[in-house]
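During the reporting period the student researcher (J.K.) took over the structure-prediction task from the postdoctoral fellow and processed the backlog of single-chain submissions. One of the processed entries is reproduced below for the supervisory committee.
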Amino acid sequence: MDTPQVKKLVASSLTSESYYLPAEKLISGNPKQTLWQHYNSKNQKFSTGIWQSEIGKWNINYTEEEFCQILEGVSVITDQVGKAVIVSAGESFIIPKGFIGTWEVVEKTKKIYVIYED
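J.K. obtained the following structure tokens:
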């Protein structure tokens, strides 16, 4: 039997994965995004890591719950009715399951994320 262990999240020990968003999501730009996956549970429902994006804007549709803490940069998250929230370095927030809108990176953004998808 495996005994669960505490896992330290050490960014320097991770490899990164870079990608570009599918064209159908893009509104403006073609931001390169980079992901450093710290942890993914065995059942694939819980994950955490660091995400970074260059400047651009795209559509979002959350099927998961996400906690974010912005480490660097500025982004604007706007809901379907046009209510915008500006998030910047040092701020933390939650994006709930079912949220639909846009994410715009106005200054290269890096965040810690924690995701739960049931």
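The committee noted the following: Residues 53 and 87 are 14 Å apart (CA to CA).
J.K. will present the remaining backlog at the next meeting.
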